[in-house]
Amino acid sequence: MGKTSVDARRHIREWSAFFRDVNAAGVDAVEHFILQHRKRKYLRQSLKRLIERGFVRERDGNFSPTQRGLRFFHRHTSQSQKPLRWDGKWRLISFDVPGGYNVARDQIRALLREFDFYQLHKSVWVSPNSLAGEFWKSLVESDLDKYCKAMVVDILEGDEKLRKHFKIGT
User: What angle do CA 97, 158, 134 make, to 5 degrees?
Assistant: First the structure.
């Protein structure tokens, strides 16, 4: 992994820790946070990207995480604190969205990417991680759960590519 991507991931973890439990932070608090770090320019750039991508909202001199941002930050702080301990089971989500509901289909895919699922087939996604309550809560709140089926499997034939993708030893 290149130095730039390592730094970018570190900045995401730092902003995740900052915004995970915060309802709103004023410009002064954000500026104080940035000044505590060595690479201020890149931290500011990361904040700008978080705003552009809809994870953080800036209004009236306050920065606050969006609902999507809270899930994103929670996921990134959880991953940085807890190493993956794979229990040998794959979690699969399949979905079938009727034609004409492209927005719902796109929302499901975005949510699956956000929770680090890997696309196995067009509408079948897989992850070695336990399905988080936040994932289900997001599906239900978006009224997308009716299109999805979840499976937990012990054996997935030809999972070598998946093990490599998720960095799971054999």
Answer: 45
DSSP, res 54: T
Which tokens in the block code for residue 150?
């979840």
DSSP-derived 3-state class of residue 91: strand
Q: Are 103 and 65 in contact (CB under 8 A)?
A: no
Q: Output the CA angle 103-144-69, nearest 5 degrees.
A: 75
Fold held by 90-165: Alpha-Beta Plaits (3.30.70)
Say which CATH class 3-80 falls into: mainly alpha
Contact (Cβ atoms closer than 8 angstroms) between residue 94 and residue 27: no
Q: What is the pLDDT of residues 67-94, one digit of tens each?
A: 888 777 776 665 433 345 788 899 999 9
**What are φ and ψ of residue 26, in 5° steps?**
-75, 165
Place of tokens 């993708």: 165
